C-alpha cells in the first residue's frame, strides 16, 4: 500500500437508503432513464472517483413502497462506457442466475466498449425467490462456493481464448485472424460445461478486473476483495485476513450520510421515518464531511480503497465532490484515474499474460 486510496462509488438507483427516491428531487421513474445515469456517472468521474459500481439482483430491489425496478447492471455500465473516458465501470453479474459463457462475453464486450475500464462485481444471489427465476432451489454453501469458483475460472479462461495478436485484419489477403491464436476452451464444472473460444477477442485489459465480497470464499480468484466492518479496527482485521488468503487489493465498504443543506442526523431521521435503513454491516458515517475525511485517512492505513454508498446521491455526491475528494487529493491521499489509462493501470494491477500464448511459446521451443 502507498498510503493513498482509490475511491469507488456505488450508483444504484437514487442512493443506498431505501427511501432515497423520496429525496432525489426528481420524479421517481426518472432514475430508469439515461439522463439520470449520465449525470451521476459524469459527476463521479469529474469528482475523481476511480470506479463506479452498479448493483443488481435477479428480482426487484424492493417488494414494498420503495424502488420497484432497475435497469440491468451490465446495460447501465455499457451505456456509461459511451459517456465517460476515465472512470472504471463495474456491474454486478450473478453467477447463480447467468449463463457463464454469456457473462464472460458481456464483460469482455464492456471492456472493449470502455477501452479497458471494465470490472465485474461477482454476485451470488442465492435466496429462494432469486433462484426461482431460473426454476431452481437455493444452493448449499459448499456447492455455491464451487459454483462461484467455476464461473470465475471459466470466465478467465474464455478471456484468454483469443491471444492479443489473434486479429490480423490484413486487407490485402482478406485474412481477419490467425486461427492458431484462437484457442478452444472445454471446461467442465460441477454444474455446467462450457466450450469456447469466446466470440469476442481478448479484452483490452487482458483480464477484466474481478471484484468479490470476502464472504464468497474466492479471495484467491479475485483481483479486488470487498470487506466490511463497523469500525476501522474491524475493517483492519478483515483486511489482514483476506491479504493472508491472497487478496491483491482490499476495499472497505462505507455507508455515507453527510451534512448538506440539512444536518446529516436530521436527513437520516427523515429517511428512516419513511423506510428504516437496515443494518448493512458496514461502517456508517453520519455527520460532517471533515469527519469523513478523517475516517478515510484512517482507512488509508489498512485498505487500498474505499467504496462509498451515499444515502441519497443527489444530496451526498455534491458534498463528496466539493468537500471530501479535494481534501484527500490536496493531501496526496487520492488515486485518480487519467484519460487513456485502463482500470488495471489506475489500480496498479498488472496486465496478465495470456495462458495459451505462454503454453504455445513453450511448445515451439
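Sequence proposed for the structure above (365 residues):
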Amino acid at each position: 500500500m502507498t498510503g493513498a486510496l482509490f475511491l469507488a462509488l456505488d450508483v444504484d438507483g437514487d442512493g443506498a437508503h431505501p427511501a432515497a427516491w423520496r429525496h432525489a428531487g426528481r420524479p421517481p421513474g426518472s432514475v430508469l432513464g439515461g439522463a439520470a445515469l449520465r449525470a451521476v456517472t459524469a459527476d463521479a468521474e469529474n469528482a475523481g472517483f476511480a470506479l463506479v459500481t452498479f448493483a443488481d439482483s435477479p428480482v426487484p430491489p424492493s417488494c414494498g413502497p420503495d424502488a420497484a425496478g432497475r435497469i440491468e447492471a451490465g446495460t447501465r455500465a455499457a451505456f456509461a462506457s459511451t459517456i465517460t473516458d476515465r472512470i472504471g465501470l463495474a456491474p454486478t453479474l450473478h453467477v447463480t442466475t447467468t449463463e457463464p459463457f454469456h457473462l464472460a462475453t458481456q464483460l469482455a464486450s464492456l471492456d472493449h466498449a470502455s477501452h479497458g475500464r471494465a470490472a465485474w462485481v461477482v454476485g451470488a444471489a442465492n435466496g429462494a425467490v432469486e433462484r426461482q427465476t431460473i426454476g431452481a432451489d437455493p444452493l448449499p454453501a459448499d456447492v455455491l462456493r464451487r459454483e462461484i469458483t467455476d464461473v470465475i475460472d471459466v470466465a478467465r479462461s474464455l478471456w484468454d481464448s483469443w491471444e492479443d495478436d489473434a486479429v490480423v485484419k490484413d486487407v490485402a489477403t482478406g485474412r481477419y485472424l490467425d486461427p492458431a491464436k484462437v484457442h478452444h476452451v472445454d471446461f467442465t464444472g460441477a454444474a455446467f460445461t462450457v466450450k469456447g473460444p469466446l466470440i469476442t477477442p481478448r479484452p483490452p485489459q487482458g483480464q477484466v478486473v474481478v471484484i468479490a465480497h470476502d464472504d464468497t470464499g474466492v479471495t484467491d480468484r479475485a483481483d479486488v476483495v470487498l470487506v466490511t466492518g463497523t469500525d476501522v479496527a474491524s475493517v483492519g482485521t478483515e483486511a489482514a485476513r483476506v491479504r493472508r488468503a491472497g487478496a491483491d487489493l482490499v476495499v472497505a465498504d462505507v455507508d455515507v450520510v453527510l451534512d448538506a443543506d440539512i444536518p446529516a442526523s436530521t436527513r437520516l431521521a427523515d429517511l428512516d421515518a419513511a423506510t428504516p435503513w437496515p443494518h448493512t454491516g458496514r461502517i456508517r458515517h453520519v455527520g460532517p464531511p471533515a469527519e469523513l475525511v478523517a475516517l478515510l485517512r484512517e482507512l488509508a492505513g489498512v485498505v487500498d480503497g474505499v467504496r462509498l454508498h451515499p444515502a441519497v446521491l443527489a444530496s451526498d455526491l455534491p458534498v463528496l465532490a466539493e468537500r471530501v475528494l479535494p481534501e484527500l487529493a490536496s493531501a496526496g491521499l487520492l488515486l485518480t484515474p487519467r484519460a487513456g489509462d485502463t482500470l488495471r493501470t489506475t489500480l496498479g494491477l498488472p496486465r496478465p499474460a495470456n495462458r495459451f500464448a505462454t503454453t504455445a511459446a513453450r511448445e515451439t521451443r
